[in-house]
Amino acid sequence: MPTEKKERERRQVAALLRDEAYLIVQSAALDPPDVCVRRDGKTILVVEVTAYHSGNAQVRASDKWNNRLWPKIDDLRRQEAILKGIMGSVAFKDINALRLNQEQYSTLATEIVELARSISPNLDDHERVKATFAETADTAPVSIIDPRWLQVSAKLLPLAAKSLLSVTYSKHPVDWQPWSCPQIDAGWSKVSAEKFRSILEEKSAKVWKNSGDPSRYPPGASSWLLIICDEVNDMSAHVFPSDSVARTALLQTIANCGFDFEKSPFNEIWLFSEFRQSKLRLFPAMIAERGSSSIPLETRDDTELLGGGGQEPLF
Predict the structure, then answer these.
(1) Mind listing the pLDDT tens digit for each residue in 155-186?
(2) Whole-structure pTM over 0.70, yes or no?
(3) CA torsion sign, 54 to 199 to 35 to 224?
(4) What does the CA dihedral 60, 256, 242, 285 come to, rounded to 10 degrees?
(5) What is the C-alpha to C-alpha distance for residues 148 and 268, in angstroms, rounded to an integer?
(6) Which positions ≥6 away from 190 have C-beta within 8 Å?
(7) How far is CA 169 from the centre of its chain?
(8) Cα–Cα dist 49/37, whole Å
């Protein structure tokens, strides 16, 4: 039974290929590769799948917010009708140093939602208030610095005061909008040549080590590397270019990484946006067009990124 990770990789490759009727996309029996593509009972393509992340700090921040804290906050707030229109922006003191167990994440989520519940009755639509925490001798648990800034006693919400720099709450005439975490939102745009080189070298070494095994890499099958540069629900992986300027900057960064594409074990290397369902081929140096790949792909052109069609060198 494929794991959730394996199934996601299979879906990503199927999206790249547009899951044509004559292709069967399935998780590989052995790792590597991650995914194999079959046609007429024969494996014609094997794919190694990975995701680009801005760096370890952003990866850890993304995991803490998306998988540990936010689901608990979301579950608790939906039990309170008064919080329907309330949005929150949670800022950690130090996302790298935060080390909580599951019970502590539950406690932190409870404190954040309790604070939202106490603040929400005093918020008008489109109004926001920032809550910070302080050790204070004041008898009042909450001090009003100004109408948009409250200072909460650390004794009232001890784990929130220890872990968070602030929480900004706002009210909108909409139901159950997602909350945000600035450390995640700020992490998406960092593109690193060193990180790309690390990905390319690591995946190449992994394939070279196993390339002599015909049960993994059947003779005649093409070998691809798919780098996800825009994952849904993971802001640390959003580096896929949205226009020609961003595309040029991204490709220049990759060119500067110093990786020798010609000596890699991959016949083709692709960038893919899971969120936008867009793709860009790094190697061989041409843009994905209908019929341009060694595997027949029924895909749309990425001409909105290029300002025109046709083949174009990337490096």
Answers:
(1) 999 999 999 999 999 999 888 988 988 776 55
(2) no
(3) positive
(4) -120
(5) 53
(6) 54, 55, 58, 239
(7) 24
(8) 13
H or E segment and range at residue 248: helix 244-255
Which residue is associated with the tokens 């009972």?
Answer: 41
Query: Cα separations (Å) of 102 from 72, 108, 144?
Result: 10, 10, 32
Phi, psi (rounded to 5 degrees) for 227: -110, 115
What are the Cα distances from residue 168, in Å, to 70, 133, 163, 181, 202?
Answer: 15, 12, 15, 10, 41
Which residue type does 310 have? G
State pLDDT tens for residues 69-114. 999 999 999 999 999 999 999 998 876 656 788 899 999 999 999 9
Find all residues with CB under 8 Å of 179, minimum gap 6, and list them.
70, 73, 74, 87, 88, 89, 90
